Amino acid sequence: MKPLVTVDWLSENLNEPNLVILNASLESNVANIEVEFPNLQIKGARYFDLKGRFSDPNNKLPNTLPNPEDFAMECRKLGINNNSNIVVYDNIGIYASPRVWWMFKSMGHENVSVLDGGLPDWINKENSTEKIQKQTIKEGDFKAKLHLEFQKNASEIAENIDNKEAIVVDARSEKRFYGLTPETRENLKSGHIPNSVNLPFLEVLRDGKFLTKEELLQVFKSKNLLNSPLIFTCGSGLTACILILASQLIQNKVNYLYDGSWTEWGQLEGVAIDK
């Protein structure tokens, strides 16, 4: 499956037997984007509890990737199989869905796509919806195999400051990147990882959809991000995945995520921080 699919594609493939639609909507977002349809979902969608069942409960950091066994168990509860073709969306357009796409890719599942435009575009094109409801779903057979090569940890980020093998790309807002506004979480310093580049995630989106490939190329070219390995970071590992997906749409290479992101880096003692 392509990493990004349109509403038109999904509406034409709703009867595909292996299709699983996941609703990854969150209650809030760092960009304070107003949610138009908080109580609706695409008909037949299954709720992917990103901040609850699909985050590591033993990690103090938010949104961190659970272990493969727990991830697979929760996927099976959602009726997901190894041969499932997954389409994930959220009720903003593009926000949490790329994080879920990245999680499945990291767990070895290739047949996963993000719905460009999400629920707002689905509704604007007069497709069927239903109220969010509890469901009884036949258990699936999903198995996970973690690909650690998609991630970087704090030690590797520290090493990269010196060896500059990759460019660290920060998806947070410019004010947060330059420490001009306080961080929302307690005990977090302000600023950014030294030598990192700021590319706010909203700059690769328009009206809840990704920019065209030509426009994305221009954005990445303007930041000199086309010819180097890239490590993406943000506040908690969520919006960085928007940039990872944007990068994959225009260049065929591995993009790394620093899953701890600023929530971890901004609490560590002795690490380098620029403003």
Can you offer a commentary on this structure?
The protein is of the alpha/beta class and 275 residues long. The chain has 2 domains: 4-146, Oxidized Rhodanese, domain 1; 149-265, Rhodanese-like domain (Oxidized Rhodanese, domain 1), CATH 3.40.250. It has helices at residues 7-12, 68-77, 97-106, 118-124, 154-163, 174-177, 213-222, 240-250, 261-265; strands at residues 4-5, 19-23, 40-42, 46-47, 85-89, 112-115, 129-131, 151-152, 167-170, 197-198, 205-206, 209-210, 230-233, 255-258. The strands form 4 sheets. It has a 5-stranded parallel beta sheet with strand order 1-6-5-2-4. The longest helix is centred in the last third of the chain and has 11 residues, at 240-250. It is globular, with a radius of gyration of 18 Å.
Key descriptive features of the protein:
27% helix; 5-stranded parallel sheet; 14 strands; 275 residues; Oxidized Rhodanese, domain 1; alpha/beta; 2 domains; 9 helices; single chain
Strand fraction equals: 15-25%
Rg over CA atoms, rounded to whole Å, is: 18 Å
Number of strands: 14
The CATH architecture term of the largest domain is 3-Layer(aba) Sandwich
Main sheet summary:
5 strands, parallel
Q: In short, what is this structure?
A:
By secondary structure, the protein is of the alpha/beta class. The protein is built from nine helices and 14 strands.
Indicate the topology:
Layout: E1 4-5, H1 7-12, E2 19-23, E3 40-42, E4 46-47, H2 68-77, E5 85-89, H3 97-106, E6 112-115, H4 118-124, E7 129-131, E8 151-152, H5 154-163, E9 167-170, H6 174-177, E10 197-198, E11 205-206, E12 209-210, H7 213-222, E13 230-233, H8 240-250, E14 255-258, H9 261-265
Parallel strand pairs: 1-6, 2-4, 2-5, 5-6, 8-14, 9-10, 9-13, 13-14
Antiparallel strand pairs: 3-7, 11-12
Helix pairs in contact: 3-8, 7-8
